[in-house]
Amino acid sequence: VPEPGQSDRIVGTLVHRMLQRFGFDLAGGKTVARNAALGILRPEEALATSAERTAEELADAAVDVYRSICGRPDVRALYAAGDRLHEVPFTMRLDGVVLRGTIDCLVRAASDRMTVLEFKTGRPRDDHRVQLDLYRRAAERLFPGLSVDGHLIYSGESAPAGARRDRF
Predict the structure, then answer these.
(1) For position 167, what pLDDT does the model report?
(2) Predicted local distance difference test score (pLDDT) of residue 157
(3) pTM assigned to the model
(4) 4 cis-preceded (ω within 30 degrees of 0)
(5) How far is it, in rounded angstroms, from Cα 147 to Cα 155?
(6) Interstrand relation of 83-94 and 97-110 (parallel, antiparallel or unpaired)
(7) pLDDT in tens, 71-87
(8) Alpha-carbon distance 52 to 58, whole Å?
(9) Cα 118 to chain center, whole Å?
(10) Do residues 118 and 104 touch, judged by C-beta distance below 8 A?
(11) Distances from the Cα of 125 to the Cαs of 63, 99, 128, in angstroms?
(12) Residue 85's CB: how many other CB atoms inside 10 A?
């Protein structure tokens, strides 16, 4: 029995994989995009959510979110500003506690500047800003001497007017 909301998490995971694999350049129509998403959906993910959504429904939802993010000129500009690193793992000690995480995307836009892009497929929550700040701090440790800023990017928002872009 799938746990509630599991299919939403898998849609988010698919969107992250699509951004990593295709960047903002997935060409083709709905069928091509659906097949691309199905190609990166793991069999156990499809089985785990089959009671909530079919694999095709998961893929279609992921494609819609992916295209929503890719359709934002402000996000496209941030993403295209430099060299990108996706799914960057980190471990750091903060206030005596060892923390581990994975940063969605780092963009090195200049020799002295790094940007954290944190993609969210759900609704804005207060803990997202806390998470972004933690990721920004981790990036500062991974790349000492660089100035690091961060952006929360929510799918379904149009930007820049009215978009929630938290920047640190």
Answers:
(1) 43
(2) 65
(3) 0.83
(4) no
(5) 26
(6) antiparallel
(7) 999 999 999 999 999 99
(8) 9
(9) 5
(10) yes
(11) 23, 20, 6
(12) 15
User: Which residues are CB-neighbours of 47 under 8 A, at least 6 positions away?
Assistant: none
Q: Identify the three-state secondary structure at position 86.
A: strand
Amino acid at 84: R
Closest CA to 166 of 157, 45, 53: 157
Pair 18, 36: CB distance under 8 Å: yes
What six digits make up the tokens of 76?
Answer: 């496209």
Helix ranges (DSSP H) in 25-102: 30-40, 43-48, 55-70, 73-79
CA distance 25 to 70: 8
Quick one: tokens of 135? 């990721």
Pairwise CA distance, residues 36 & 5, whole Å = 23
pLDDT digit string, tens, across residues 9-37: 889 999 999 999 998 888 778 888 999 99
- Residue 76 β-bridge partners: none
**Using CA atoms, how far apart are residues 118 and 134, in angstroms rounded to an integer?**
11
CA dist 31 and 47 (Å) reads 22
Tokens representing 16? 């992250």
Q: Which residues, at least 6 apart from 6, have a Cβ–Cβ distance to it below 8 Å?
A: 48, 49, 52
